[in-house]
Design a protein that fits this description.
Blueprint lengths: L3 H11 L7 H10 L4 H8 L3 H8 L7 H11 L11 H5 L1
Helix pairs in contact: 3-4, 3-5
């Protein structure tokens, strides 16, 4: 039998892009004074894809989120929402 709670926790841990927070990422980028083009170039994605990610129309891959975090000088956790379990705790 599937342990749903364990599955959900595992899903959030292994699929960070599913809890991507584009609003937070955009705020960090703007605070750093970086343009969309600058960040998109460092992540290897198009300006349009980055714009769509910030708007919530595209979930970037875990690799892209890692590249964004590195480019912005933040931890990956700052660009994603906590899992439901972490938010409740």
């Amino acid at each position: 039998m599937l342990d749903v709670d364990s599955y959900v926790t595992s899903y959030y841990i292994t699929n960070m892009s599913r809890c991507w927070n584009g609003i937070r990422a955009k705020a960090i980028q703007e605070a750093e004074g970086r343009s969309n083009k600058w960040l998109a170039d460092r992540c290897g994605i198009s300006h349009g894809s980055l714009r769509n990610a910030f708007a919530g129309q595209y979930d970037p891959s875990d690799k892209v989120i890692e590249l964004m975090a590195e480019a912005l000088g933040v931890e990956v956790e700052e660009l994603v929402d906590p899992s439901e379990d972490e938010a409740i705790a």
